[in-house]
Amino acid sequence: MSVSLQKGQRISLEKPGGQGGLSLVRMGLGWDAVKKRGWFGSREREIDLDASCLLFADGRLADVVYFGKLTSDDGSVRHTGDNLTGVGDGDDESVIVDLTRLPVHVTSLVFTVSSFNGQTFNEVENAFCRLVDETTGAELARYTLSGGGAHTAMVMAKLYRHNGGWKMNAIGEPAQGRTFQDMLPVIAAHA
Questions:
Q1: What are the respective helix, strand and coil percentages of the chain, to the nearest 5?
Q2: Which of 24, 27, 65, 160 has the fewest CB atoms nearer than 10 Å to its CB?
Q3: Nearest-5° angle of CA 57, CA 60, CA 61?
């Protein structure tokens, strides 16, 4: 059963009934462009949002996965590819994480989204991130990135180690930037 998260909410990623933790998860990002009405009906614009995953070790950046580097150095985190338009239903971009292969020094993963062409979230609708158990296909949590705004990026969510397991925190902090590099000061505050 999926949990609809609110900004700042945290959930445990332990399987119900004490069956242990998850091993393989996918953070999916989906969005649509706001349809513009014109003389000849409405038309959909293309919006290039980019999902990134930053791996932190005790607050220090250890690695990053994004459209320009699709796999982490150790192979435990993999980006499935860059969607330049947002066209289509479901996850437009995904980052798959093998929690069992993450190095022990990695204490958190911060997921971000940024508008490569500088379009603001006022031009985006139906945006969400969701965490899926890749072994079963079950959606575990969904966070709606709603409200629009003049920002071009957002720190979406964080997975972090807690007492031998993993938890998820829905962050939803607006930021400015075309890439994760532009957002590093904001991201680091959530590491």
A1: 10, 50, 40
A2: 24
A3: 90
What token pair was written down for 124?
Answer: 């985006």
Q: How many CA atoms lie within 13 A of 87 on its CB side?
A: 6
Identity of the amino acid at 50 = D
pLDDT in tens, 119-174: 888 888 888 888 899 999 998 888 887 667 899 999 989 999 988 888 888 888 89
Provide CB contacts within 8 A for 172, sequence distance 6+: 7, 8, 143, 145, 154, 155, 156, 157
37: domain CATH number is: 2.60.60.30
Total domains present in the chain: 1
Domain containing 178 equals 3-188
Are 142 and 128 contacting, i.e. CB atoms less than 8 angstroms apart?
yes
**Burial class of 59 by CB neighbour count within 10 A (0 to 12, 13 to 18, 19+):** exposed
pLDDT tens string 2-43: 567 677 777 777 755 444 568 899 999 988 877 766 565 555
